[in-house]
Please model this.
Amino acid sequence: MYLSSYEERILKGEYGYAKQKAMEILVALGDLYGAEKLIPISSAQIAGVSYTSIGDEGLEWLESLMDGQVEVLSTLNPAGMDLDRWRDMGIPIDYASKQIRIIEAYSRLGALPVCTCTPYLSGNLPTYGCHIAWAESSAVVFANSVLKAKTNREGGPSALAAAIVGRTPLYGLHLDENRISNVSIRIEIDLTDTWEYSVLGFWIGRTLKMDDVPFIEGLKTYDTDRFKAIGASMASISSMSIFNADVLGDSRPESCEKLSFDRSILMDTIETLPDTSMDKGCVDIVCLGCPHLSLWELKVIANLLRGRRVRKDVNLWLFTSRAVYSVAEKCGIVSEIESVGGKVYRDACPALAPLSSIGYKVMVTDSLKMWFYGRHLAGLETIFSPTIDCIYVASR
Ligand code: F3S
Model:
């Protein structure tokens, strides 16, 4: 990969240890993928934030980058706990102290301690066509597909490296030719509830090949929340990182494979998930907010809870970003939910929180990404249910 003389000097260590290490990562990545050069980025979203995912080695590595500073707006993925209310979540003190050190290390590097998988709802909102370096698969799909920014699906180290250097290798989804759809999916039913969009995304991820670019056509109802649900589940089960859609102003590809999505496929997709019909009487936690809940989603949940109370034997945990939380708090939504026994947590991802070591066993969720990660990362039994059923399981 071609490097400018400035980039060569970074690689030789003339701009400090952290920048040198970051440049080494970018050069290795660029060489691996045949990138021609590095290009400037305007924002980064950094993964590898929870102590569950990076452990002591990751923490030590972060703390070794003392002389570094990010060059662009950089936000963080969720941590393994609410950074203030971790005791309330039952997080052990050892875990919490390591988690706080991780956030402090990122903050020293200049990354903003905005720990969310919806950075676009929290001030990190890239514009059309700009190059960015985002980790967090659901946010990557949202950025590429809805915002039309350009990013590969970065890992934690590569997103951090790009943030520190302010550049990323030019390959993959930074190139327009790799963003063109080759499979069209006609939606033959009226989807309405967000959980149905989660099923659509999951089915796309399971059905298409990893280098396919789907073109979704015929969605009658769509908004930010529904698009984030599609992207999250699609990316949970495949490495696809972009879709196009007629309702997003994309042009239909001239020749492509054609598939359709109808009610029987929707039902089939749900019915073929293992263990979804498990007895809901054994549920001990209901988690909503994967990806983090928007203001409107919190409002809808508050409405669903009206006149009900969360059961004593089930926890209802809702996850959102600090930005959304503070507006929801001002609007009285947080107190409405918490006054009937629900909890609204910030900063955290339930799949990355140490839930099974705290003692939780069975989780119900309306997100197929959480359903998937809850069982494969968090070691829980997980049940997928429509949002309203999740609320009814948790309350009466
Ligand atoms: Fe966010 Fe965790 Fe889901 S990072 S998208 S809440 S798995």
Q: What stands out?
A: The chain has a mean pLDDT of 96. The first helix runs from residue 5 to 12.
